[in-house]
TrEMBL record, chain A:
Pfam families: DsrE. Belongs to the DsrF/TusC family. It comes from Halomonas casei. This is Sulfurtransferase complex subunit TusC. Signal peptide: none annotated. InterPro entries: DsrEFH-like, Sulphur_relay_DsrE/F-like, Sulphur_relay_TusC/DsrF.
Length: 121, 130
């Protein structure tokens, strides 16, 4: 159960297509560094950020996976992933980094309601 | 009365987000609410560029933000990391990075993401325009 102070950061964009993912993760990391509890919810194409073994993007683009791997060090251990979205993208849980928590679409409204503070990227 | 905080992440002239945010800001204040501040992040940092020069029959969004500040003393914070990456900087940052020009001036303030979280903390309602 989230504390009243817990920040929920929603990631809705895949890596490399834009800087949404990177700048969303930056916000999550800064909040965690300031001692605020942080949870992440990956929706739609945002789930691609969690694919294991991905490399960097086009030449000059930084990889985002190292940042995902760093989340645990910042005590960000709730990585919510909607079950149905995984099915839609035909991605199995094995393909994702360790430590994700599956959530059913019907439970997402509750999750949002538990969080007074939300940032959506 | 509510205390509102706004997060603007859409760029001027390519996203309707800055227009919506400005209209919301004026409407909220007109209804007696307080605007705790506006934070510019992601492509929204371009709103802070004093070098934007749209045609005369279009709203100059940078000036519209300055007007909001002038009328209501609203704090305008810009994420420094997102801004520097995109070529937006204050005079002191331009000196630090060896650049000839700068395009961020007061009342816009270059600041860290900590300010975004702090603004969210002291807002009753925190609204994203992206």
């Amino acid at each position: 159960m989230a504390t009243p102070d817990t920040l929920l950061v929603i990631i809705r964009h895949a890596p490399h297509g834009s800087s949404w993912l990177r700048e969303g993760l930056d916000a999550a990391l800064v909040a965690a560094a300031f001692g605020q509890p942080v949870e992440l919810l990956f929706m739609g194409q945002g789930i691609m950020a969690l694919l294991k073994g991905q490399g960097s993007g086009a030449p000059g683009q930084k990889a985002s996976l190292p940042t995902i791997d760093m989340l645990e060090m910042y005590d960000i251990d709730k990585l919510w992933v909607p079950k149905e979205a995984l099915q839609n993208l035909d991605i199995s849980t094995d393909a994702l980094v360790d430590g994700v928590t599956l959530i059913a679409n019907v439970d997402i409204p509750d999750l949002l309601q538990q969080h007074a503070k939300i940032l959506s990227f | 009365m509510m205390q509102y905080g706004l997060l603007v992440m859409g760029a001027p002239y390519s996203s309707p987000a800055p227009h919506s945010a400005l209209r919301f800001a004026h409407a909220a204040i007109a209804r007696g609410h307080r605007l705790a501040g506006v934070f510019f992040y992601h492509d929204g940092v371009h709103n802070a560029s004093s070098l934007m020069a749209p045609p005369q029959d279009e709203l100059n969004l940078n000036e519209a933000w300055l007007e909001l500040h002038r009328l209501h003393d609203v704090q305008l914070d810009v994420c420094i990391a997102a801004a520097l990456r995109r070529g937006l900087m204050s005079e002191s940052e331009a000196q630090r990075h060896g650049k000839q020009v700068f395009n961020i001036e007061k009342p816009f303030e270059l600041t860290g993401l900590g300010q975004l979280l702090e603004l969210q903390q002291r807002s009753d309602r925190f609204i994203t325009f992206a």
